[in-house]
Amino acid sequence: MTVAMQLVLEPVSSEVYRVLTGQGAHVGNLKRSQGVWKFKAIGYDARGAVMPGWGPLTDRHNTVLAFPDTALVNALLVPI
Prior knowledge:
By secondary structure, the chain is mainly beta. It has one helix at 70-77; strands at 7-13, 16-21, 26-33, 36-44, 50-52, 64-65. Strands 1, 2, 3, 4, 5 and 6 form a six-stranded antiparallel β-sheet that branches.
């Protein structure tokens, strides 16, 4: 049985939230640009270098959200 990933939001500023797994792994950012909130996937290579657009939620990169909300983020971004 697979347990679905649960995501949490951590505010960075009024325009940016870090998106973390329940275990604290950074998987992306929720950014507001020109009034639109978009999810930006983040991955890391073997040396820890940031890889924008990659990671476990790469297929959700650029998903538009109405507003930053944990339940909404989980509904739209967590794979089934």
